[in-house]
Amino acid sequence: MLHSLMARIIACRLERVRTARGLSQRALADAAGVTRQAVGAIERGRVQPSVGIAIALARVLGVRVEELFEAPAAPQPPFFEGVAREHLAIEPTRTTLPSAFVAGCDVVAGLLARHAALRERELRVLWLPMTNRAALEQMRRGRVHAAVLHGDARERGKDDELERFELATTEEGWLIARGNPLRVRGAADLARRGLRLVNRPRGAGARALLDEQLRRARLDPARIDGYERELEGQLDAGRAIAQGFADVAVGLASVAKLFDLDFVALRPERCTLVVPREHTRSAQVLMLLDTLRSQPYRDDVRGLDAYDVSRTGERIA
Predict the structure, then answer these.
(1) How far apart are alpha carbons 129 and 260 in whole angstroms?
(2) DSSP at 171
(3) What is the C-alpha to C-alpha distance for residues 252 and 105, in angstroms, rounded to an integer?
(4) Domain boundary residue among 268, 295, 310?
(5) Which of 73, 178, 233, 287 can pair with 120 through a Cys bridge, CB separation 3.0 to 4.6 Å?
(6) Enclosing domain of residue 252
(7) Mean pLDDT throughout 249-274?
């Protein structure tokens, strides 16, 4: 019910802005590089747009992505025990279709879920945003079919039971308010009075990178305003900075792009799709891998202007 409401809100906004610009659905679709059917489906509230499509439409219409597509915040009940408070995949309210669950905090995981849902009509795909550690834990318990992980995340003693596939490479670094009004240059600045950090939970790659930067700067986390202020997802951290609730965080280049933030790269980041070997021949995973290797998905990820997709879909030895 909640997701149907969100889709209707997005539909009304898109149609209102499009007509105010004097554009037909066809003209908007051509300018954004999408199909007219995609624009029509979004305006009818049938689907929510992928991140790449949202960016393309917002650029053509001359508005920020969040102005056009962000729905009002509302509590979301868990839809199965112990996994996540929310998901962002396209889904019908009632379905008898088989489901594929994908866990991970990167927006490319959400893109993969959306593309698979649109591409494979016989499959229901759900994205569960969570940290590396939580995604590995849910996969270990058999609650998800695949995990999207950052960096060198491993499940101790289980690596020989997992298959890994290249998803994309990007950069991780400092997310900073647009224009860098507080002149943040690195970890040493975090101890300054009045500078507000927002952190990620334990088990997140961004948290580990932040701790590494603090050790190098010889800073005690207790001195940092906001070190204990945790937000669950990458998008949550970016939104907090964009809306003025925080000044800096560690996150991905794609998040900086989405929220129009300044970004200072700290290291390259490899993003992989990890699947238990026992599931690699299942219909759900085969459909996910087919989507991962599809040109529309690669184009959508490339459209975020923050990822290298030259090896997307390759099996990692």
Answers:
(1) 21
(2) E
(3) 10
(4) 268
(5) 287
(6) 171-268
(7) 92
In-domain check, residue 310:
no
Tally of CB atoms within 10 A around 303: 18
Query: What separation in angstroms does the CA of 291 have from each of 122, 143, 216, 219, 284?
Result: 13, 21, 41, 44, 11
Q: What is the CATH number of the domain that holds 189?
A: 3.40.190.10
Residue 40 belongs to some domain of the structure = yes
Report which secondary-structure segment, H or E, holds 175.
strand 162-176
Q: Give the whole-angstrom CA distance, residue 305 versus residue 217.
A: 31
Residue 188 inside a domain? The answer is yes
Q: Do 224 and 190 touch, CB atoms closer than 8 A?
A: yes
Q: Which of 89-103, 157-171, 214-228 has the highest mean pLDDT?
A: 214-228
Query: For 127, what's the count of Cα atoms within 13 Å in the CB-facing half-sphere?
Result: 23
What confidence tens digit (pLDDT) does each residue in 188-223 have? 999 998 899 999 988 888 999 999 999 999 999 998
Nearest residue to 77 (alpha-carbon basis) of 69, 67, 87, 68: 87
* Structure-token pair, residue 77: 């009940």
The answer, yes or no, to whether residue 265 has pLDDT greater than 90, is: yes
Which of 37, 53, 69 is where one domain is finished? 69
Structure tokens at 151: 């960096």
Average pLDDT over residues 176-180: 93
The structure tokens listed for 98 are 């088989």
How far, in Å, are 31, 46, 204, 260 from residue 153 at the CA level?
40, 36, 9, 28
Q: Write out pLDDT tens, residues 112-136.
A: 888 887 766 666 778 888 888 888 8
For residue 233, being part of any structural domain is answered with yes
The domain total for the chain is: 2
CB contact set of 283 (below 8 Å; sequence gap of 6+): 98, 123
Looking only at the bridges linking them, the beta strands covering 146-150 and 248-252 are unpaired
Structure tokens at 252: 């991905």
218: left (phi over 0), alpha (psi -120 to 50) or beta: left
Residue 63's CATH number = 1.10.260.40
